Amino acid sequence: MSSLLRAPAQRPVPDAPVWHAAPPPLQLRRVHHRTRATTAGIDGVDLVLGPAELIALQGPPGAGKTTLLRIAAGLQRPDAGRVLVAGEDLNAVGPGRRERLRRHHLALVPSRPDCRSLLGPLQRLEAEIARALALGPTVLLIDEPVGGFDPETGPAVLERLARLRDDEGLTSVVATADGALAARAPRRIRLREGRVVAGDV
């Protein structure tokens, strides 16, 4: 008598999920930039900025902080090296793609002189940060937020950025010459004469 029993059909085993880590929001790879004698250059800077980080970029006046922030924001091209935004090289893509990457991922709040205003220094800075965040960037770069301001402005700004980090996953970099303010940030990078000299890079 022939057997009517058959081995149960083998169900295909699904492939194990493959997790691809997203690239960091911003990376600088061996960035060099030569500038005029009155402006600090950048000499071989390597930085990786991860998601939801709050970072102080500390250095004395003339260390190259502003130049580095402008290069990181895509507003200035380095002479050599790579600026990677969400894994894409800003200087290797076409102008249209470069502008989209810059607008959708990066925002820079430049240093401002402490001019007279109806608003207080903290309120003015808050307004500038709000404008910079209007397009929903993943990285916010702030240049010297406490220049000429009262001593309470810097810590208040860091508290605001910490809330944005926790609530929205924003990565922020605050350039400052104020060592006490930089020490309040969870991560500090020190810049001198265009080079990273200490800190968790």
Automatic annotation (TrEMBL):
Stored Gene3D superfamilies: P-loop containing nucleotide triphosphate hydrolases
Molecular functions (GO terms): ATP binding; ATP hydrolysis activity; transmembrane transporter activity
Pfam families xref list: ABC_tran
Domain of life, per lineage: Bacteria
Domain ABC transporter: 26-201
Keyword terms, alphabetized: ATP-binding, Lipoprotein, Nucleotide-binding
CC terms in the record's Gene Ontology section: plasma membrane
Keyword flag Methyltransferase: no
Region called Disordered, residue ranges: 1-20
UniProt-recorded name of the protein: Lipoprotein releasing system ATP-binding protein
Organism: Patulibacter medicamentivorans
Lineage of the organism: Bacteria, Bacillati, Actinomycetota, Thermoleophilia, Solirubrobacterales
